[in-house]
Amino acid sequence: MKIGKYPVKHTYSIARIIADIISVGLAVLIVSATINFFVRYDKFLGYIMTDKGHATMLAHDPYYQTKQWLALIFPVLMLAVFVAYIILVLKSHRFSRYNITKRNAQQVSDAYTFCVSLCKIPVLIIITDTMAITQDKLLPQYGFGWFSWPVLLYTIILLIIIRYTRHRIDNITAAPTAESSSDAIKVKAVVSQKRSADEQPAENNKEEV
After folding, report:
1. Smallest Cα–Cα separation from 20: which of 81, 73, 77, 74?
2. Which has more pLDDT, 174 or 202?
3. Mind listing the pLDDT tens digit for each residue in 136-145?
4. Distance between alpha carbon 102 and the CA centroid of its chain, in Å?
5. Which of 49, 68, 71 is nearest to 58 (CA)?
6. What gap in Å lies between CA 140 and CA 137, rounded to an integer?
7. What is the mean pLDDT of residues 186-206?
């Protein structure tokens, strides 16, 4: 993996490990909720197929026997999130808008990979909440409305994470200011003067000998 034109190591921080564990937990929740939905939907079909329920449901919704498969969209979306995560983390990135150097390339890589890992959490929560609403409509129970505050909230959190990471990379790759450059020149001048002062007595001692 390269950041800019410099190779970097694939590192794992404790925070990133925690983010990945939470993501895996959300993935397990999505899969288990989908399996539970199909069990409940089978019971629902068994109920409406008796007596006059079948004819009534068929008159209102002729696709109610097959639309249960719409619930598979959410595990597929969850899988797509993890595939995108692996690709984004392992793929090399140019980051042409940033001043990438050999010194800051690893820091940029760590900031970027942690951002990608952290972004999985709000995305998976949005998928989970949307899944709950959709399953509620498919059964049908009609306990939830289509609008969801958690979806809006975690969308904002996702944008904040991305914006913060961009700001962090801006700071990491920022070019040194004129003031810091002049300070570095002053330090070098002082060091060189000190060296010359130390070397002069040594040369005098040699001449005396």
Report:
1. 81
2. 174
3. 877 766 666 6
4. 24
5. 49
6. 5
7. 53
CB 29 within 8 A of CB 128: yes
Confidence at residue 199, expressed as pLDDT on a 0 to 100 scale? 53
Cβ neighbour number for residue 197 with a 10 Å cutoff: 9
- At 56-70, the pLDDT tens digits run 555 555 566 677 788
Cis peptide bond N-terminal to 62, omega within 30: no
Structure-token pair, residue 93:
């990135």
Q: What is the token pair recorded at 33?
A: 């909720």
Q: What is the largest distance, in Å, between two alpha-carbon atoms of the chain?
A: 120
What separation in angstroms does the CA of 202 have from each of 47, 191, 208? Answer: 102, 17, 10
Separation between Cα atoms, residue 168 and residue 141, nearest integer Å: 46
Output the CA torsion 149→150→152→153 (10° steps): 110
E strand or H helix that includes residue 6: strand 6-7
pTM (2 d.p.): 0.75
Distance between CA atoms of 119 and 154, rounded to whole angstroms?
A: 10
- Enter the tokens of residue 53: 């329920």
Confidence band for 152, pLDDT divided at 50, 70 and 90 = very high
